[in-house]
Amino acid sequence: MHCLPPELVTAPTAKPISLVEAKAHLRVDHGLDDGLIERAIDAAAGHLDGYGGILGRALMAQRWRQFFSFWPASRCLPLRLAPVTAIVEIRVRAADGSESVVDPANYRLLAGASRPEVLISLAASLPALEHAPDAVAVTYAAGYGETAETVPAAIRQAMLLMVGDMYRFPETVALGASGAVPMSATVDRLLAPYRRVQL
């Protein structure tokens, strides 16, 4: 059956790096380019953060909803993003069309750094599900925290380097150059330990 992508429920309210930090990194002491720098910060965050980001991680605190079409025999529901801090709700739609919320006493979060999962208790009585890709909806809180300082320093430094590249090379191809301006190789090295394999 078709697998639905995770759905963003609540977007982060803060950014992993601030305008002040980015300007200090760039050694910019005026406000003329603030809009450009803010867009570069947003672009860097968008490239790394959430389900669409290359890391497969939530950086700042946010909420996601993930869908399942059946109960796995293992009773483990793998979550696409990390780190996961809490399960907000598991809502199911039964074969008869009724909806219910799974009692939190019947599951627990296995918040491993690489593959967070929800483990459904073997003692829990699970309803027969509606034949639909969103029969089970798991809403969860993800991200390193509410403040930028909770995000690993290597990720934040990589973002600053990305912002620097975008600020200094606003065009994808420099005038007279033979190809696109590449991002710093240091960025890849800083991010490598945090990349997750999407299953």
Task: Write structural notes for this entry.
- Helix content is 23%, strand content 21%.
- The mean pLDDT is 91.
- It folds into two domains: 15-58 and 150-194, Phage gp6-like head-tail connector protein (Hypothetical protein yqbg, Orthogonal Bundle), CATH 1.10.3230.30; 62-142.
- A hairpin with a 6-residue loop joins strand 6 (107-110) and strand 7 (117-120).
- The strands form two sheets. A five-stranded antiparallel β-sheet has the order 1-2-8-4-5, with no helix packed on it. Strands 3-7-6 form a three-stranded antiparallel β-sheet, with no helix packed on it.
- The protein has 199 residues and is of the alpha+beta class.
- InterPro entries: Phage_CHP.
Unreliable runs, pLDDT <50, ≥5 residues? Answer: none
The mean pLDDT is 91
Shape: elongated
Give me the strand/helix succession: EHHEEEEEEEHH
In total, the number of domains comes to 2
* CATH fold-level assignment of the largest domain: Hypothetical protein yqbg
Please, how many helices? 4
Task: Tell me the distance between the termini.
Answer: 16 Å
Q: Supply Rg.
A: 20 Å
